[in-house]
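Batch manifest, entry 17 of 40.
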Amino acid sequence: MKIFNQKINIKQVLVVIVLLLFGNSGKIYLLHNVRVNSDIDFYDYFDHVSVYLFSLVSLISVIVSWKFINKIDRTNTILKFVKVYILSFLLFVTVGVIIDYVLLGIVMNSKEYNFIIRFINTMSVAFILVDIFALTSAFLYFRQSQKATLELEQTEKEKAVLQSQMLQKNLEPHFLFNNLSVLSGLARKNPEQIEGFIDDFSDVYRYYLNHGKKQLVELKDELSFLISYMNLMEKRFGNTYQIENSIENTDGFIIPCSLQLCVENAIKHNKASEKNPLFIYLSLKENRIVIKNKLNKVDFTLGTGTGNDYLKRQYQLNFNKNVIFTETDNEFTVKIPLISEV
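Output type: structure tokens
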């Protein structure tokens, strides 16, 4: 069922209606007794002021109860609404008894103040104001439900956009053209290396296409992919950029292309040569993969930060974990969380 383009859970609505009916049944019974047995003067201004005061207390009781329950219960089930409803009722009775005692027992110095009778009276007022408890609790609950639904939809859209951007980045034309240029050079100078180059080139693109939209891949598969990617870089740059991998335990999972993105950034933003190569170190510490390299920044790079933003947002959206980027005067480090199980 949808109202104003928002999904409404029929069961949740029915629970709210049942609680309203239950509370109002008690209210009708109390009002009947008041009419038949009570001598309440409805022209007494003090009684009307008391109603406004207790109505305000009931509203505040619901808001305070909602904030408290919301801190200890992060779920969004109908049980949460019931908890708020009950707690606000009890909180109102407690505060109401205190206010009643202060007004009648102390301020008005009533000598005939009877705690039991005043407690029952406060309970009666709570039932009379039951609509405020139910409707305010329901409003807060459904507002949070709607907000959670919208946030979930927005998160899914953002995930899809990020994955699309990343796939486009990996398949961007200049990467293809650069490797075709390398292939052309091999054909002229080292034709015996063509077959190995094509194998690595195929492995890289196959990995992009097969794993680009997956949420996680095994660490061992990502490391194998990184070897194929570095083989392409070696054909293009020689031994200018080198990987030193000290990861022995390859259990666990990682977002696809995470390591390749970090290595690609290191290559893009740092100068190196055959005589003075850039070493990129991979290690595993405290359940995080650490990618580290010395800084020797190039004078100018055309970068958009897409890769780093992609990693940060994907780990936050999917796993509520942070990718840590640290830069000092001479070193750049990335720490990527290793996901232990899917």
